[in-house]
Amino acid sequence: MTDARAATIEDVARHAGVSRAAVSKVIRNAYGVSPAMRERVTAAIEALDYRPRVAARAMRGSSFTLGIELPHIGNPFFTKIVAGATAALQGTGYQLIIAPADVDGEEGVRALGALADRQVDGIIAISPLVSTAWLERLGTRMPIVMIGRHDRSENYDTVTGDDAEGTRLAMAHLFDLGHRRIAHLTRSADVTHPGSGTPHAVRLEQYLASMRSAGLEHEIRVIRTGMTEDAARVDTLAALDDDRPTAIFVGNDELALGALRAVGEAGLTPADVSVVGYDDVDIASHPAISLTTIDQSGVEMGDRAIRLLLERIRDGRIEPTHFSVTPVLKARASTRAVRTG
Amino acid sequence: MTDARAATIEDVARHAGVSRAAVSKVIRNAYGVSPAMRERVTAAIEALDYRPRVAARAMRGSSFTLGIELPHIGNPFFTKIVAGATAALQGTGYQLIIAPADVDGEEGVRALGALADRQVDGIIAISPLVSTAWLERLGTRMPIVMIGRHDRSENYDTVTGDDAEGTRLAMAHLFDLGHRRIAHLTRSADVTHPGSGTPHAVRLEQYLASMRSAGLEHEIRVIRTGMTEDAARVDTLAALDDDRPTAIFVGNDELALGALRAVGEAGLTPADVSVVGYDDVDIASHPAISLTTIDQSGVEMGDRAIRLLLERIRDGRIEPTHFSVTPVLKARASTRAVRTG
DNA sequence: CTGAAAGCGCTTACAG
DNA sequence: CTGAAAGCGCTTACAG
């Protein structure tokens, strides 16, 4: 009835006939509380349906909230990372909040800043488009795990896939199938800046290296596109010209789905143009899609990122840790032996 | 250098030689600030790289944060809702945080509670598995928009698809193709409880009604499954027995993809067993998938939910509003005319 | 083991 | 237009 405002710690203390400090201790499971007091307080909490305000707690202690910055919520690979993180958080008392940075590339700073402003106890940043210096500064303020990028720092942990190795696997697979004219479809130049350490940068560099060491420098062809499947479809379609490649190594699965769509729309099949993706999102294994790709276990990445964060928060770890997952080739029907003619 | 702790409003006030109240007014763009003072404060904010702590603001005013509860982050339809919401938030000064409830059905309460504990200024709840009474109580405390469920309340807004109409479109399409033996693949009984108003409940009821009014009561077959594509694959496979249906109307696209996979694994094609989904997720239109489905515009739902929330927060609207999007049939290759034999 | 008091960083009336 | 003071709901030393 008199539901006007939710109970506060003051209400609970009064109801139980104890001090606010005592209630606080019970809530936090702190030492120095008699069983009798614990019982009375617990009963009062129950009776008043009391829940501590996170904002008030955050002012003095911690917010029991971990934040994850998502560059593009439409990408199912990121979704797998979040699923892994969510599962790892079960029973820890911490809550995950996601800050989507969907709109454009510059939004990463905003999303990360928004998490910091909310006093989260730690942040997972997925291949954020911010400078190492910026992230390092944030890392002095709170625990950070960066997923994806290969640049390291004393101030934050990293969880990465071995993108060079993954790319080598993909290229070797195509070479084995007899392909020589292999194009690479990747994001715009600002995401693949050499030395930036982004997954896309590393994959591009290794693509170039693999082509060169196979003596195929003259066959190198880099196609640029945006962040979405549809952008990839449009840009692939434009690249299926007279001089078209026999295979395309694509920077990630979401873009590879667009490339596959383009191949179909051009009246071709994987027998004409093979497509390899990267990530192994769920739909890649669907028989109708059957996309050859590199599995880099997003679930494990999310799980690991949470563990690293909790180590810093609860165990007080300071030294940076760098964890790497091993990529695995998933050969499927979207890659075929090159036509001999 | 002395980056020990981030600047507070006190630091800014001192730097600018004004009171904290003055800084607060400038931040909030409140009335009664001379241009000169505004300029000095702005300069000080810039110089100190000051950002107000959200937790502190939330204690007195608002958190400028909106929360969205996601039942299952793996479902790309929910992802579209989030994308619509994110876009609608651009330039409003509000930030969206997502609370995933991925783990199991009961997690909805936890996720919603977590958002409430964080003093968000408003909440979007996607078909939450909580009672109307529970949600109503929450609605007295903060603005709420519920997406999906058809139950209404004086205390919150709703954004729904016309699930009965969408189901009618799907069933009419199958009838037109000559199907009679049409099964319905849906979630477990606790999600389709009659009268609960969940989308799955409404779709199930309309499936039954459509079958009955077509004189096909004896062909009714309801197959139950879990929340994931893989669960749907397994349960569909089990249903492709000697007495198998010629068509399956599936509760949503994610499950329909699993059903499609099962059809393939059973050595059949849509020419043997047609499949209709619901939602029109992106991959449904991929030529290799080509899933017939009902488009209910998740992006528009997310956009609308944000607008309704902001109306309550900023304009002080009190009367509940109910918004419905109109479903559209997307007929594709996963539905074929029934074989005459 | 228990509690009174200070303080976290803001906003909000209220004086001036 | 400007500022001093109270207060939001917690946690944290510090006494007792």
TrEMBL record, chains A, B:
Pfam families: LacI, Peripla_BP_3. InterPro entries: HTH_LacI, LacI/GalR-like_sensor, Lambda_DNA-bd_dom_sf, Peripla_BP_I. Gene3D superfamilies: 3.40.50.2300, lambda repressor-like DNA-binding domains. Residues 7-61 form the HTH lacI-type domain. Keywords: DNA-binding, Transcription, Transcription regulation. One of its GO terms (molecular function) is DNA-binding transcription factor activity. This is LacI family DNA-binding transcriptional regulator. It comes from Agromyces kandeliae.
